[in-house]
Amino acid sequence: MSLNLVLRRTLRLVCLTAGLISILPAVGQDEQVPHYVRQPGVAGKITSVGSDTLANLMTFWSQEFKTLYPHVGFQIQASGSSTAPPALIEGTATIGPMSRALKPSEIRDFTRVHGYPPVVLKVAMDAIAIFVERRNPLPGLTLKQVDGIFSQTQYCGGNGYINHWSQLGLSEESYQGPIRLYGRNSVSGTYGLFKIMALCDGDFKNTVNEQPGSASVVLSVASSIGAIGYAAYGYKTAGVRALPLGETADNFIPLNSDTVRGEQYPFSRFLYLVVNKKPGEPLPTLEREFLRYVLSKEGQQQVVRDGYFPIREDVLIRQRRLLAQ
């Protein structure tokens, strides 16, 4: 067995343990996603601090929730997943959207202050896409090529640095120059998860242009023929194309609903909402009802509206049970 394959299997096991990848069985036919039922007496303000990836989705959820409850207000700050745990610890946020699982150190910090760990709910599925400009003819990338393009250390088995399009077999005149790289900044959950899943926790090349949000990455790639970048798939526009990926060029896997929800696409991931819920006690009415809405048929319809993928019904039912404990 190659060292590269051992590393990938080890990292996948780490991701499974951390909750980044699901191994739950397929949903049964008798499982049903419930509709949301409006409740009386819901009012107040929700403060959300965290993921840029979830910024639009939080806005969609909040807008629809406010149509049900006009006396509810929202303040949404999307500076990156790493900002969510400190805000929850300090009490400056009621909800922490994250595009990655909590790190053990973040759980320890929260538990040291509050005496119990936070509650982490899976609320949607996404994928980290490798985007190129829509006219780029590249058919796809192997995972070793991804490593060679983005990584300085190449722990995932890259066979040397890939810095020019010609190294990927492109002979068109438009692709004779260097590859321009775009990605997220270090406070982003997308940055951290891509570092683990695509670079085997290696180092990025210093030529990666770090952007404050996935929208900036997509815009940069769309406006440059020689660019490539990684970002949340939910920010896809008509100007870019998500490349199929695979272990080899013979088994490229496209990025679509089936391959993400079935977790065949290599960089599939869950999106999370984290809350401070004391064990054995219910959440305050406002936060509880908002999360029940998110984990309802109507809330998951907003996930689709924003270009992401709803979680499987069996996963959703388990999140509702976790919320009700």
Automatic annotation (TrEMBL):
Keywords: Periplasm, Phosphate transport, Secreted, Signal, Transport. The keyword Signal applies. Residues 1-28 form the signal peptide. This is Phosphate-binding protein. Involved in the system for phosphate transport across the cytoplasmic membrane. Belongs to the PstS family. Transmembrane segments: none annotated. GO terms for cellular component: extracellular region; periplasmic space.
